[in-house]
């Protein structure tokens, strides 16, 4: 007997209904997301600072062109990892703290609050200014973000007991952070050996904030490592080198990737120590480095072209389409025809396609330790990244 069109439609309805019911229960894993970090996670904090101070917002149009067709404060053409993660957990997109604070919306942050700011560093700006004579536009260091978090808690969750419960039921993203601490001296042409001693200081701050969050009641935290920065169009352009310094397979600068691995190895060692002291706390290391290296090693397997692997999609330059003085959104820039086939959006940040691939390999794959998906199911990747929210 051939089923009628009505019965087929009914079956499809039931499938969608129970699928939504299943992944709505994902929300039972975490009641909210609390995020700290830099431009890899900022969903609008620096844009808000731009409107209330003299801070220049560095991610204007065409940033956001593939999201809702306008700038949102995200330094990419579309969405970030945090956006895919929130949707996969059945949570609204995570609101930037400074925007919500400006509208007095403490209650609206109970399902997610983001303190990350474009350009943020782990170390305080006064330290960076003294050391490198080059420092962030505004002091939004990790400890400053933590202070914002503490200040905002009474409006979000009320008394100490309720706030401890709120923090304990939240997924906390502690980074990406630390990359800008190294990018500042790199931009001045400092050598890697000059910068290596400061890795210890950067990690010390990350671990200090991690311990404070645990003391406040945190029970589930994700701490990302550093990227393979030797593959960034910005680094490849500024540090043009001899042939033997490039990886023969990826074309990345080996010494910069080795520096990132040095940071990551030290960070993981410290995280292991914290795990031993806090056996009831789940501390997940997010391997951003290898999540990206799988793309650089086999770009076609992930939908990226050879040209799109090391060249910026949006920029104004020659070999890598990047120029430090004429960046994406400035007076001179061109945009690639197919951003989804490019790894880098502007030479310093990634495309939405890259963030989506990273989300999948991290939160639905093997690049978070301990594995995230074995502890908390998330929506299939085919159901993530298709819904718009008013909370952007």
Automatic annotation (TrEMBL):
Signal peptide: 1-24
InterPro entries (alphabetical): GDSL, SGNH_hydro_sf, SGNH_plant_lipase-like
Keyword Signal listed: yes
Keyword annotations from UniProtKB, A to Z: Glycoprotein, Hydrolase, Signal
Taxonomic lineage of the native organism: Eukaryota, Viridiplantae, Streptophyta, Embryophyta, Tracheophyta
GO MF: hydrolase activity, acting on ester bonds
Cross-referenced SUPFAM superfamilies: SGNH hydrolase
CDD domains cross-referenced by the UniProt entry: SGNH_plant_lipase_like
UniProt key word Lipid biosynthesis: no
Name of the molecule in the record: Uncharacterized protein
